[in-house]
Specification:
The protein is α+β, with helices and mostly antiparallel strands. It is built from 2 helices and 4 strands; from the N terminus they run H-E-H-E-E-E. The structure holds zinc ion.
């Protein structure tokens, strides 16, 4: 009985630690990963690609993100598009930058 209890506690602790890693990993990705800044903008060739990337992006807490707005930026000859995202669960907000210089019209 004591051993079973120890195993359950160990499993629960493992799940908890792994979940923490995942959350931190996602937050780090959101802060420094592809699309986090204009310098790291994700190059895309179509608006469909933007939609796909936005749909696949998850919040640090693991929930899907909701698009709250869009914007456009220009840096010399480079054109950017940014999508603002918010989480309904923890109210975390992120922005993804896309490099649309090569966008096919
Ligand atoms: Zn969240």
């Amino acid at each position: 009985m004591g051993l079973l209890f120890a195993v359950v506690v160990l499993l629960a602790a493992t799940v908890w630690v792994v979940r923490g890693w995942r959350t931190r990993g996602r937050r780090r990705l959101a802060a420094t990963g592809p699309g986090s800044t204009m310098e790291r903008a994700i190059p895309v060739r179509s608006f469909d690609e933007i939609d796909r990337i936005v749909a696949a992006r998850r919040c640090g807490c693991g929930r899907p993100l909701r698009s709250t707005g869009e914007g456009a930026r220009q840096l010399g000859a480079q054109r950017f598009r940014l999508t603002r995202l918010a989480c309904d669960d923890c109210e975390e907000e992120t922005v993804i930058y896309f490099d649309v210089t090569e966008l096919v019209h």
